[in-house]
Amino acid sequence: MASDPRSGHDVLEAAQRRLARLRFDLHDGPQQDVVLLAQDLALLRSELRDAIGGHPEAPRVLGLLDDLQSRLVSLDSDLRRLASFAESPFLGTGSVPDALAELSADFSARSGVEPDLALEGDFSKLTESQQITLLNLIREALANIREHSGASRVRISVASGPDGVEATVFDDGQGFDLAGSLERSAREGHLGLVGMHERVNLLGGRTVIDSRPGGPTTISFSLPAWSPG
Predict the structure, then answer these.
(1) How many CB atoms lie within 10 A of CB 196?
(2) Domain membership flag for residue 198
(3) Which of 40, 115, 129, 185 could be stapled to 154 by a disulfide with Cβ–Cβ 3.0 to 4.6 Å?
(4) Does residue 100 share a domain with residue 74?
(5) Residue 55, Cβ neighbours under 10 Å: how many?
């Protein structure tokens, strides 16, 4: 009996979608941790340089920190190469509300701005992929706010119901030119905003980014409910 060529196409397409999702999981999880660690290391080096600048051992100590920085750069490259073979460890064993509270606390510690976090509904019915996508997109949005927006007010709203889950991240920062940012991200190979759309599309959802120079910025996305069979 002849094989169905459409079946082979479906298998290939499913494999490609899974590889893409794993690549995004790796980017938004451990790769972001490496970036944050590199930033902390650079801050430590700067403070040490000021504190021990005149000490005879200062060049050796600062050189060791430079070596660590180089290793982090190498680790980031390795993570990118291994993206298609890795599973995302981002969610861990905690619940979605716990993970969101942790993201909010980490953002507050790094930025000095405490987000207004509003959660509604039951998150236990979300699939693992939906949970990872939800948390990763909020983490990506918060990283963009911390690094680029200069916001003084941030609000995170997440609601889970029978039809799926909806999330919104708002900030009153300086905003950005959406079309230009998407084009630049795609051209330079950065996942960022492009990745937000692609991750949600992989799970049948929808993303809306509303921003303009001068702000504010609102990023909203929804993921439909999933049932087996």
Answers:
(1) 24
(2) yes
(3) 115
(4) no
(5) 11
